[in-house]
Design a protein that fits this description.
This protein has 295 residues and is of the alpha+beta class. The chain has ten helices and 14 strands. Strands 1, 2, 3, 4, 5, 6, 7, 8, 9, 10, 11, 12, 13 and 14 form a 14-stranded mixed sheet that branches. The N terminus and C terminus are likely disordered.
Length: 295
């Protein structure tokens, strides 16, 4: 049967894939792995839901896979969870960004790779903490407010190459450390949902001249402590090849929940693919056996 994205399509496996705005369906499915799906669950809040597009794969009316695209500047976040066949179908027929930052369990990279070219990258660790495991420590961090956005973006320009609007601070929780009036370390939030009792810490950075002093632990701990006043669990992501960051988060009580992949992906058959694919075909990857070339 021909694929019709807006109305839905039937896969060869019998799964139906279509768009959905059914928050109850999504909440129940994502809640089966609450800590891994924390970003998606937070995006069901009214403040975030309008920025999202959702694809679902159904087996006789029962959801077996979900794909989430968060609107924004390209490449935008893309999250997948569930049955590999359903994920492939939803990415092929329903949720179709040209480029995206994909978050997926390792076993779903193959499903994504049938639709996207997947860049290399280190494994990521999803960590979490709650009130029973959190270990507070004396803190010199101060709560940041929207008026601090200039200093915050100046700090992030040294390492995250990102830009935050002031509403990110107004709607989230940010703490920082100042030395001689200069903001030298900060941490904040990516998403916060009082309704779900979940939040994700992010944007943790210490200026390179002040690293090794425990500032990342301090600001992360301050943000986490504030979030645990109204959240049941708090999560964060960290690269598996970053032992100092892992130790900093463990010091305030975070523990590993799961490992996953966060990769830049380019849709096959896109304009980008038409440029890159012929070049890659003739250039061997130095990290592989030299007799092997990209297909």
């Amino acid at each position: 049967m021909a694929s019709i994205a807006r109305a839905g399509s039937i896969l060869g496996s019998g799964l139906e894939v279509r768009q959905t705005r059914d928050r109850e369906l999504l909440r129940e499915f994502l809640g089966a792995n609450r800590l891994f799906a924390a970003y998606g669950l937070c995006d069901l809040d009214d403040r975030e839901f309008g920025r999202t597009r959702w694809g679902v794969a159904l087996d006789r009316g029962r959801p077996v896979a979900v794909v989430l695209e968060y609107a924004g500047l390209s490449p935008q976040p893309l999250f997948v969870m569930g049955d590999p066949v359903g994920v492939t179908g939803a990415l092929r027929d329903v949720i179709r960004p040209r480029t995206a930052y994909l978050a997926a369990r390792p076993e779903l990279l193959t499903a994504a790779a049938s639709v996207y070219r997947v860049s290399d990258g280190p494994p990521m660790v999803r960590m979490w903490v709650d009130r029973t495991t959190f270990r507070p420590a004396p803190s010199a961090a101060v709560r940041l407010v929207p008026a601090d956005i200039g200093d915050l973006n100046k700090l992030y320009d040294f390492g995250l190459t990102s830009w935050l609007p002031s509403e990110s601070v107004a709607n989230g929780v940010y703490f920082g450390i100042r030395i001689n009036g200069h903001l030298v370390a900060a941490a904040g939030t990516h998403v916060v949902s009082r309704e779900m009792g979940l939040a994700a810490v992010g944007n943790v950075l210490t200026h390179r001249d002040y690293r090794g002093r425990g500032f990342a632990k301090t600001v992360t701990g301050a943000v986490t402590q504030e979030l645990l006043r109204f959240c049941d669990q708090v999560v964060l992501n960290v690269r598996a090849d970053n032992p100092p960051a892992l130790r900093a988060y463990q010091a305030v009580g975070y523990t590993e929940h799961t490992r996953f992949e966060e990769r830049l992906v380019h849709r096959r058959g896109s304009f980008w693919d038409s440029i890159v694919a012929p070049i890659k075909r003739w250039i061997p990857d130095s990290r592989k056996d030299p007799t092997t070339q990209e297909e």
